[in-house]
């Protein structure tokens, strides 16, 4: 049998061996035909075979992003990005400029990634600054952590939010001294706005998904876990995904994880209906807590700058505890958002209860984020078979290490133990890596760089933040490929370069194993092959 495509390089990383080797990858149709060491590929070559030689450039399996809010990630690529705003006023004006330049002059104005922590006064924004430019159009702006929403008066009017609107469970409507809503919504209260702002027609949703896939192809992302629950419900229409799949439009494999607290009978129907090589519904997801920067992560010891505050639950944790055994019994893997050490323990307890009741099965339950962890809970990941799913870029929450809020909210001792990546990798036996896009960009080289160096963008702190938790290049890349594939039970099909696996391959413009770590962040993808087809070429 002759190959359709042969990729040749002095640096082929198969996600098995600890170092790349000179060799080639031959594909036929949508499968890998042969992974060879050395340059003797002639037996696989015909006159029709495309041969691409990349000298010392790194060839590896496509990246598998273990944690993406897919539709919101597409919106992140579509609507205004406010990450560079230095003040509330500048952010509002950036939104105005984007709205003026957009073809759509009606309906909702949407934006992402503003963060008051980066602003000079560090104060939360209010509706008045948006009302100045948008007296008639509703505005919904999601913050950098995706755990808060800034809205204008028109948006509040559409949502029916007044001074008499009660705070929902697990959230808060910010109010002024007179009790009037200010325009900022914490955690689950965000859903009061987003359930109106994030409503799209099937064609609009397809446009957003295409934007996500375009960016994913440029980054070498060939698989993703779509964690769908947001504060107003599931984000992402499975029928739209399926329609794109049937029309051969999907250039990324989607592993959708709808709401754990939804109708499991319905999800079982989805699991049977949406099961192809590119679309799966076999996981469920929910939030246990928020994030420590806003004191909403559940912690075992009180916040250093907020005595008596131990965080909040964003959902009815008793409902989650009861739902997990039933999900486990039905063969659904569960993903639990956990940023605090208390919520991590709760999640492990819930999984242990399910396993004790129904026994171990093929489920690959996960704790998502694992920013904090009590040392006594670390070995439970291996004992219970739980996947730690992490996003190293969150280490660099701020551009400068001196502006890092974690030592303030957690205290230096706890802050120095955050993101225990190496401990999880060594102890759990497997680690999954993703981006959490749109909280950060889904550029995998940011995640790799951060996992290897643990530095902020200013090069601080010297030696890296908690340097004993650094990962090697091998460990990061294996986690970003095999680890994520293992997390969704597809390690026999994806995640390594091996004969018979899907031909999902990426070529990087430098060998990440040999360059100085400082160069990793500047790496680019030269070629992305997904399902045997070239979907991006630089």
UniProtKB/TrEMBL annotation:
SUPFAM superfamilies: Composite domain of metallo-dependent hydrolases (SSF51338), Metallo-dependent hydrolases (SSF51556). Pfam families: Amidohydro_3. Residues 55-536 form the Amidohydrolase domain. One of its GO terms (molecular function) is hydrolase activity, acting on carbon-nitrogen (but not peptide) bonds. This is Amidohydrolase.
